[in-house]
Amino acid sequence: MAAVIGVCAAAIAALAAVGWVVAVASSAPNLGQLKPKNPHPLTQIFAANGTLLGEVHSNTFYNYVDPNRIPAQLKEATVAVEDRRFYKHGALDYQGILRAGIKDLFGDGNALQGASTLTMQLVDNMYLNQTKYANDHNLKYKIIQARLAQQLEAHHSKNWILASYLDHVPYGTVNGATAIGVEAASETFFNKPVWELNLAQEALLAGLPQAPSEYNPFQYPRLARVRRTQVLQAMVASHYITQAQASAAEKQPLQLQANHDQTVVREPYVFNFVVDQLDHKFCPHTPSNCPAVAEGGLKVYTTIDLNAQTQARQAILNHEGGPVLDAQPAAALATVDPATGHILAIASSTSYQQTDFDYPVQALRQPGSSFKVFALMTLIHDYHGDPDQTYYDSKFLPAGWLPEDPTWSVHTAEESYQGTINITKATIVSDNTVFAQLAVDIGPAKMDAMAHAMGITTPLNDLPAEVIGGLKEGVTPLEMADAYATIANGGWHVPPTILSKVVFPDGSTKNFGDPPRKQVFSYGEAYAAIQVLKQVISNGSGTGTAANYGCPAAGKTGTANNMDNAWFVGFTPKLSTAVWVGYPQGNISMADGFGGALAAPIWHDFMSSYSNGYCGDWPAPSDPFQGTTYSGAHSSAGGASDNSSVYNGGTVTGTGGYLGATGGPTYDTSPTYQPQPVAPVGTGGGGAVVGAGGGAAGGGGVAGGGGVAGGGGVAG
After folding, report:
1. CATH number of the domain that residue 484 is part of
2. Which end of the chain is more exposed for a tag (fewer CB within 10 A), N or C?
3. Which residues span the domain enclosing 427?
């Protein structure tokens, strides 16, 4: 009776076990409910001409290969060592399961894993990994895995399953990136495409998926050789190769060759800026962790012109002082296309080996008198003020001249004064005292609003001292190039972009190269400002004469307090370029540290070389700006008999006299240059810029005394 009861109990237990298995299998998801995880190649970043700048580092490395290009012996090696009955069984190998079960009874806890077929492993890699079903690799998991494997094999051929396995399985991690698929593995361990591998190399790869870390040939070469021999002997046992072939392959060295191309980045400052822009666009809430970029398999096309990069670096190197960072001033240049907002170049005197700080886009520095342009545009646009007919006294402003800021005193750079002059003349010679009074009269809040509308993104504080560069935070060269581009573009601001388009793995495209533009002021108003700013370069008394390269251009110098930041920001109809010079650590005076002496020569060299013969001018406006005399609390009477000037490219009426009597010569306004592809170059090395170059020593001017809103910019 006891025996009968025992048999019945065993039968009941068996039925319960079968019921449990059926229940687990029934609860498993269908294959159609799970999204396959297809690996993507590394995100690639390209220059405007299609030159690869580099690949975004990820924790995986993958390159697709056509299954027909995978060597037959590599496929055979994989089958021989991973699933030798692959072509004889279905999704499940019941003989293998029986063998694994017997081993499990005798205490081999890993035996169930050994029962996995290639199809089951493919289910792991494509569907189950990183899902709730993969939390515990127990018997329940194996049942779910088996059910999905049956579904997968019901819809696909053995050849498809093997090719997909070889395309999805991880082969090991090198330098923080796990090689996914045979092509990535071949490049990682042998630095060659998979179809060029020999038998010994194929056997080495085939042996890695079972234990990629343990058999990593870079870390454990002895174990890797042992595993390679196991694979070769498995191929002999499966009659894929002869013993002689196996013995010959076993005698070969591992033949490893690291793939250093994966880490080479051209233009690293540009590359990192592009990645940062991508991270913020695709993961605005978590830009520091953006799988959409790092693992997205994107092809990113930028606006960067490698020819512009080369010319910008050369212009800087023309005035470089040496290779030691912090021992002499550094320089940075940013240039944009005013019509499109495309960033064409961001270059600096430093190399990435010296510092990863990107001066053109990260260095917040005091702009000096280059900020006066925003007061000029506020006068013209907000007050319809004629710079040729609006007068102020050029004079020392002692502490107390402004009751709201009783400690602020203002003087000119050379501490020489010119009496009553108009805004045009004050712009040409960069008179601090005139612009300080103008800023108070027009209102610093309006001036800052104009700066923001034109492209300044750094917070401003509505303080009059900002007109001569007294900012709390400073501005970057890219900000200034963008802001001045609004004038060059006839009053239309186009946000700067370094991204042209992004191509996704499925072939779809997202365009970033046509950012929305906004009109800040009219073309007639822009043209009036251009006529003033041209003379900063062309007038013999202008502070920016060193920038004159013989073609129509406009701009403004800037020299920050203590001569620790020198600027020249200028533009043509086709380019807007900002140049900054200063010590990397900031707050160190430079000898002859005026923007006209340090920054303008670099601007000159870049614009004259990169423009490649383009010498176009702005056409006269059909609706010219006709301003009137602006009268503020601090302005002076001029002495002009007329009270307005017409800025139309022809005769300028009024007696200010600094615009010139007639318009300049007629130039062809069509572009004549095109970005040219160039051979690979280095990132530009060396330290920075010294006080070379000719030109007037004028410039931004020094804000004397207390009360200035900002000190030096943030040092990089």
Report:
1. 3.40.710.10
2. N
3. 339-500+508-647
